[in-house]
């Protein structure tokens, strides 16, 4: 995936740039893609303001190991996962639209972006494997079970086409997995993670306010029954559970299938952080919307006559106390 990304900039420059400049442009393009893909996901799922807030937060995120912050990408030089994650975010947008509305053009577009996400990084296979079923579930939460067969058939067709397009890479990847180096990395136990969540320290103390806003956003999503804000809550919860060693060892996943030992589970937290930003943006968006609605109701209810009566009502007690003020 990383090679294809750099090659794309090489072709766009018609081969006129040296490798160092081409590589620099590719990294610059990735730094543009990260906040733009997060903004696009937020705008499509929960609203423009939520996407804007999350996109801006991604720009200033230093991050740590295995995530989408600039430290891991720029200082450590490990960025294909960020590319795959961004393409996964875009694929969720296109896939949801194609799943709902159908059409050959949308089918092909969704299959192509899914293929690009898989090419971007192998972790995208796991991210899509977790998010696509949740995408279907929250679609039915929003629209009910009407047309369930049509939606499932559309989804099956899109995924089948994507697998066919990606088979040139998927088949060798699966067939030669025994020759790959085992670079798996575990995260932490749930009893270690829960105190960090309770103290709002999951992503470090500098993000406590954002994490608190995300919790408010999750509560608002539950109260207002917003299925797509709840999608981020559900996906984040599932990813953290799967990343925890408590679940991995309890389900004996390493014994069930050896490929589970090759996964770097802390990478899930990089995506969870993006979803936390989106939930925080959703909370801010709903706050701004509520203030706007309150101002509009106040403006409509307070005509000039009503405003004069309110001022008189507030001033009358003060005028009655005026004779008792010394020197008045």
Describe the protein in words.
- The protein is mostly helical and 328 residues long.
- It contains 15 helices and no strands.
- The chain has helices at residues 2-12, 19-45, 48-59, 70-75, 80-101, 104-120, 123-143, 148-175, 190-198, 208-224, 227-243, 245-250, 253-256, 267-301, 304-321.
- Helix 10 (208-224) crosses helix 14 (267-301).
- The longest helix is centred in the last third of the chain and has 35 residues, at 267-301.
- The protein is globular, with a radius of gyration of 25 Å.
- The relative contact order is 0.11.
- The model has no long low-confidence stretch (mean pLDDT 84).
SSE map:
Elements: H1 2-12, H2 19-45, H3 48-59, H4 70-75, H5 80-101, H6 104-120, H7 123-143, H8 148-175, H9 190-198, H10 208-224, H11 227-243, H12 245-250, H13 253-256, H14 267-301, H15 304-321
Helix pairs in contact: 1-2, 2-3, 2-5, 3-14, 5-6, 5-7, 5-8, 6-8, 7-11, 10-11, 10-14, 11-14
């Amino acid at each position: 995936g990383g090679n294809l990304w750099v090659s794309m900039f090489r072709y766009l420059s018609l081969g006129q740039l040296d490798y160092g400049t081409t590589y620099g442009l590719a990294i610059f393009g990735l730094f543009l893609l990260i906040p733009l893909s997060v903004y696009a996901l937020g705008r499509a799922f929960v609203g423009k303001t939520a996407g804007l807030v999350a996109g801006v937060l991604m720009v200033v995120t230093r991050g740590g190991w295995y995530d989408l912050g600039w430290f891991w990408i720029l200082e450590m030089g490990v960025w294909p996962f960020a590319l795959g994650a961004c393409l996964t975010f875009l694929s969720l947008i296109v896939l949801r639209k194609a799943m709902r509305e159908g059409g050959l053009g949308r089918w092909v577009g969704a299959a192509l972006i899914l293929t690009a996400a898989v090419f971007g990084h192998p972790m995208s296979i796991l991210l899509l494997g977790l998010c696509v079923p949740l995408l279907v579930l929250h679609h039915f939460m929003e629209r009910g079970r009407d047309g369930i067969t049509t939606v499932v058939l559309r989804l099956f067709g899109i995924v089948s086409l994507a697998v066919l397009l990606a088979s040139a890479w998927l088949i060798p990847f699966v067939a030669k997995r025994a020759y790959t180096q085992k670079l798996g990395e575990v995260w932490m136990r749930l009893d270690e993670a829960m105190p960090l969540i309770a103290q709002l320290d999951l992503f470090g103390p500098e993000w406590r306010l954002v994490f608190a806003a995300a919790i408010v956003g999750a509560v608002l999503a539950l109260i207002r029954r917003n299925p797509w804000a709840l999608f981020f809550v559900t996906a984040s919860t599932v990813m953290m559970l799967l990343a925890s060693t408590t679940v991995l060892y309890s389900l004996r996943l390493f014994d069930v299938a050896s490929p589970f030992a090759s996964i770097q589970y802390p990478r899930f937290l990089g995506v969870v952080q993006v979803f936390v930003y989106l939930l925080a943006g959703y909370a801010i968006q709903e706050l701004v919307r509520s203030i706007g609605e309150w101002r509009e109701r106040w403006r409509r209810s307070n005509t000039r006559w009503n405003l004069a009566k309110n001022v008189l009502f507030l001033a009358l007690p003060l005028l009655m106390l005026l004779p008792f003020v010394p020197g008045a």
